[in-house]
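Milestone M4 deliverable, item 7.
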Amino acid sequence: MPVELADTQRRLKQVDAALAELARVEAEGETTPSRLPLTDPQSRMSPNKEGGFAPNYTPLATVDVASGLIVAADVIAMTSEELHLVPQIKAVQEDFQLPAPPAEVLGDGIMCSGANLAALEELGTTLYSPLAVPDAATNPALRADPTQPVPPEDWDRLPMKKINNRSGQKQPQLTKDAFVYDEQNDCYWCPQGQKLSFVHKTSERIAGGRVERSRYKADATACAACPLRERCLQKKAERREVSHDQHAALRERHARRMATPEAQAKYKKRREVAEMPFAVIKHHFGARRFLLRGLNNVRTEWRWLATAFNLHKLMSQLRTRAGPAAALSLSAPTPIA
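Output delivered:
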């Protein structure tokens, strides 16, 4: 037998460690992984950038835009970086004894979740993170009067995607973007100008909190005679339903802000600083994988790497006489990425 299988006691210890990790996950209400690595139960199976799957951790780094230095670092077992944006901001405020959280934060597209937008609004922090703005030029549903039907010649341009129907088969269906929300009347209008009225609210628990959805339904009689029925409904459905969560308005405001030249100019700064630590640590330091196992050990390893990057950055600035002193001042609410 292979050596790793012949050592029964070692295998039993690995299984016991995995069972203990599963018990912890269940006790803390975390999502139970479908597969747990025996070599390191605290890690999680996730895709490698080079292809395939392996036990992995996700390192986090918050970078000060002015200096390019890492000001907060952590490691998580999952790939849910967006859940750790607000804790990282609070860590920066606490560690640097700032009177208030940073006024601006630059983050990639995954960061602009509704929960993050709501939390940052409460903190008084403005997030700059890409979020597409609906475009009337490409989506004919965004018409001046949504109570009027979309012309038949534009039906093929309505947003659609393939979904799994109740039979498990792929079926094209109009997406939610084909429906226009009317905030004043609290309803949606379908591409045929038919009203979807508010029915009720539902609540469900997701990773990072609870989501409350307002649900809207069309009139079954109108759907029965609709010329877009085959594109809109599943075979056995009688009427179309759409919904939005409690953060929909926040996302719309965020998208409009990100469409401005000022917001786009600020977000460009992220490219200059946010990815630099990872590039230097991977390519210059040669640290392309963690050498230790266990979340606490990996966190320690990542913090040493972050410290090494900061020292490398400081020495580079001293050699070029750039003078890091002014850039290191975090007493003012400078942007972080």
